[in-house]
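Comment thread on ticket #2218

A.B. wrote:
> Attaching the input chain for the structure job we discussed in standup.
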Amino acid sequence: MDTSQTGPGASEPPDVASEARPSRRERARAATIEEIKETALRLMHEQGRTDLRFSDIAREMGMTAPALYRYFNDRDELLTAMIVDAYDDLGDKVADAREAVDPEDLPGRFYAVAAAYRAWANRDPQRFALIFGLPVPGYIAPEEGPTTEAAQRAMMQLKAMFLDADQRGMLGSPIIAQAHPSLHKPAKDEDEVMTPAGAGPLPPEFFQACLTAWSMLHGFVTLETYGHFSFIGPEGRDALFDTVVRLTAITSGYPWPDS
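C.D. wrote:
> Ran it. Output below, let me know if you need it in another format.
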């Protein structure tokens, strides 16, 4: 029997191989899409604003503005793709930082998540502004679409910290232990889409604590990213950040040494 086409070293049939490997045209299209997004992001950095014009991007790339419509239907579709990329990158950076710390070191993992959030914003203020700043004039995000899903994936990183502490029996009571009734339904809705399989839902008071923790961390990061803490210098900002992280953990019931 001819066994030349069997075994682990055998080549894939032509039709399987062609399906697995993008064509040259597909690779070229994907590369152009990435170049468009990179050019748009660079222009955001240079111009200090998140509003974009196809004509500016096309000019930078040596293309005509109508040629961009072969890759994106309009400016909003481009912005949507960039927002999704930003949320995914933020989520990846935060998750990588958390997983680099011993799973038993809950305070260390909490600090790593906060520090990664801060570092990402300081490193890329225009992308930070794109997803957390003032709405881009005229831009309407698709309802329950890719931007919402990407935001949920990124924000899940903080909630995962609380779920982990809760499953270990280490999550204490937040200082404000009673959630307003208006938060009960959002807490339930978020649990349905942002709770990993096998994890129990967080009670409303801890949903409120998660939001409070994010608000506190985000407040510091926003003020620092936009230069409002420049008067206290790098060492002062680091010390203040450490205080904010500690205060955030303690007030939300997250385990923290000597709290």
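A.B. wrote:
> Thanks. Noting for the ticket: Residues 51 and 137 are 7 Å apart (CA to CA).
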